Amino acid sequence: MLGKRRVIKFGKSGNVILRMYLVFDIGGTKTRIGISSDGQALIETKIVPTPADFETGIQTIKQVADDLSHGQTIKKITGGIAGPLNQDKSMLIKSPHISSWIGKPLKERLENIFNATTFLENDAILAGLGEACFGVGKNYKIVAYLTISTGVGGAKIVEGKVDQNTQGFEPGHQIIKPDGIPCKCGGIGHLETLVGGSYIQQRYGLKAEEITDPAVWDEIVKFLAIGLHNTIVHWSPEVVILGGSVSQSIPLDKLLEDLTVLSTIFPRLPKVSKGSLGDQAGLLGALKLLR
Ligand SMILES: [Zn+2]
């Protein structure tokens, strides 16, 4: 979809200089990169595997951005990355899935390479913002977003803004099974170890989208329902949105059935829905934050 407005300048030679916005979403497995000319709509996007190595990651972002922008000047950059960030949001401080990126000056490197102001945020926060503002959450005031992908993340979005927080949101690392297996973050029995894509593959030998046995889904959904119940009683949302690749395969009817049994304190369940923006949720959330 082409943006409506473009910031157009004329260079000394008279050539038109378009000023572009770069947005990205670095997940545990895939990185999505997009370009916008007006900060409102994405012109073009590309998905590449997330490089395990930070330096390779920087080069990949640079290369894809150059391809997508056709060499036009990047004015501003906003992007998400999988894991909690440090206080000034310049780098990742913990990540079970892309450990080589921890403590590396991501913001500074991008600002130097592109000579453009850069904002970083947690990837689930941006995807939540995208779904809350442009996806199935757009008519709701209080949105609980959970992404179930390689790992599990989430965010509380209130009236189209990320709710106030001191260290982010990490509903994927709530304890569901105190005698469960270790989580890559160092904890035990976290929601992520029970419903996250990389753990599902370890446990069942299949990717989520390959699992057809209803008994396996019953087990996964049972734990997801406990996690969502906890999130609902803490965040009190009007709608719960499930994003991320694994959530596409989750049987929603069974999940609602389990949630209804667990929900004994509130008179009604919030609406529970799968996200509608797919891979673009994080990029659209990044555009929203950029504005
Ligand atoms: Zn954990």
TrEMBL record:
* The organism's place on the tree of life at top rank: Bacteria
Read off the PANTHER family from this record: BIFUNCTIONAL UDP-N-ACETYLGLUCOSAMINE 2-EPIMERASE_N-ACETYLMANNOSAMINE KINASE, ROK (REPRESSOR, ORF, KINASE) FAMILY
Q: Which family does it belong to?
A: Belongs to the ROK (NagC/XylR) family.
Q: What is this protein called?
A: ROK family protein
